[in-house]
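hey so i finally got around to running the thing on that chain from the lab meeting. sorry it took forever, my laptop kept dying and i had to restart like 3 times. anyway pasting the input first so we r on the same page abt which one it is
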Amino acid sequence: MPTAHPRLEPGNQLSSRIDGRIDAVVHLGFAVLMVASAVRYVMRHSPADNLWTVALAVAVCALYAVTAVLAHRQPLAHRQPPGQRTHRLWIPWMVALVAAWAALVVVAPSFAWCSFAIFFLTRTAFRGWAGYVAGGATAAATAVGLFRMSGWTDIAMLLGPLAAGALLTLIYDKIERDAALQRRLFNDVTQAQEQLASKQREAGIATERERVSREIHDTVTQGLASSLLLLEAAQRSWPAETAHHDVRKATDLLRRNLADTRSLVHELSAPGLETGPLPEALEHAARQYFETVSIHVTGEPRTLPSEVRHALLRVTQSAVANIKLHARADHASVTLGYLPDAVTLDVFDDGRGFDPASVPPASANGGYGLRAMRQRVEQLGGELSVESSPGEGTIIAAQFPLTQPADPAHALKEAL
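ok and heres what got predicted. didnt touch it at all, straight out
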């Protein structure tokens, strides 16, 4: 059956949530710094100087607001799938914003602190060389404004913003590469999970088909085959008393077959398997096909997992049905053996035997019994062997490993 896996949040949703939080912080920071810078500038300059500078600052704020609204409605370049070009709508607005900002910071260096928000917005809006040009223009304008404020004498005011811009560019590129790598890894993990889930579904379907085919073979197919033999024998000897006996036996077998089919359809256990003593269940299953079969139990009885009990019943049914159909045996026996760490099942008949190496492969005409028994046993970690030769009878031996501790009360119930 498919195995459950942790559910990962879709990459685009996770990225959108993170980007939204970063955008909110950047926009808030820009607003706070613009207000603080405007107050500082107004307090230090005359009204004549304030008019045009404040008007330019208002224009920058308006351009930034328009850009922020567009950013909310349409993806920026770094959020678009690789290979897609940045939407042309960004070009005029971002160019106008960078140009207005460059003029403002050169005229009024008090607004230089807002360069960080402008730099971030330019790098998120453009890819490749366009992002470097826009970010470089922002850093250069800031450097010129601060250098001008120092009276064109403080070289640190010129080199500081340029160095800061280069450092931020390197850091941003590193973050962008890591984010791209994370998105690729996320997509790879998501794809691998989908493939694994698909493989598990296919494996589950194949396993279920195998299980149903074994159940049908060990119940319906074997019962119908035995009923057919009885009816053919009755037809040959009719109206003798033995024919009536064979018809009654075939009727009983078909009735049990119908009950098994209904249980299989409704995914129910075989009658008596879960609650009745195991030796009696094996005897009931074996004598559907061979009335004189004898049942023996060796070792100390212990509790068995339900899947092992079910496998023991089905292997017994299939093996004894094969004796009825093919062996022409006079005697048959089933031996259930309890070992300290395993349980064994031996089905013996004194029939004509066969060469196990020459058994034909399974086909529409039959040949599925031994394969189904082996699959059923090996699926539980057990082993199945067949010992036979022409004229020497046959022994089918199955062994199932047991690791669960015994339940004394249940073991006593099975022994009764």
